Amino acid sequence: MAFRAPIRGDAMSNERIKMMIKPEAVALLLLAGSASAQSHLDRVMQSKTLTVCTTGDYKPYTYLRPDGGYEGIDISLAQSLAKTLGAEVKWVATTWKTLTADFTGKQCDIALGGVSVTLKRQQTAWFASPLDSDGKIPLVRCADKNKYRTIKQLNKPAVRLIEPAGGTNEAFAHAFLPQAKLTLFHDNVTIFQQLVDKKADVMITDASEALYQQKRYPQLCAINAEKPLQYGEKAWMLPRDDISWKMYVDQWLHLGQANGEYQQIVGQWLATKG
């Protein structure tokens, strides 16, 4: 087939197309480009403020002390991240039931504090690289540790479940233990005393929390922590579609794990985890 040289009409058509792009359209394209460039990374560095949503009721990750200060694994990590950006942390209180809505509505840069990765949350937010793998297990009185180990043993009308309102623990109970008697409790700090006082039999929670709480309450035992009933991961929630911010947080976390800072912070709370 013979090569066809460009005809004059081709060049003229290209010129007409260029002329049809109105100045208003060019301005909109430039505006969109500048808006997308303004990531949370830029905003944090400019404002010197890292805005963090957290529940403050989930040891060892986040806890609001009576004096108004926060402490925990994720709290210390957030302060470390803020330091790399020359910023201070602004804490925004939330609950497990309103976590996602507060995260987007209050324009937090991060939501953290033992947050479990779920596909439902992924629909409206991104997650940083996972901090740790975890999973749902029963926390029970040690005297009953052989009674409540499997789904079959737990999913019975005589079993009294107690869970925080909202969040993944309640979701697990509805999905896998519909026959059990479920009570929703609105204080995730004192909920464990309900088990000790025999006002409930079982709390389904993450293995990390169960292991931590059994040290605080010798009467309670974490069941099958190495073989959870459901696999899970913990990670920080990030604003969706902000790739620059996610890449920075992921790189900071990677370096912290490589140089030992992450392990040092975790060790302050879970030094005897096993």
From TrEMBL:
Listed GO MF terms: prephenate dehydratase activity
Coiled coil regions, renumbered to chain: none
InterPro entries on file: Solute-binding_3/MltF_N
Keywords: Lyase, Signal
Protein EC: 4.2.1.51
Record domain Solute-binding protein family 3/N-terminal: where: 49-273
Uppermost EC category: lyase
PANTHER family (alphabetical): AMINO-ACID-BINDING PROTEIN YXEM-RELATED (PTHR35936:SF19), MEMBRANE-BOUND LYTIC MUREIN TRANSGLYCOSYLASE F (PTHR35936)
Family membership noted in the UniProt record: Belongs to the bacterial solute-binding protein 3 family.
Protein's UniProt name: Cyclohexadienyl dehydratase, putative
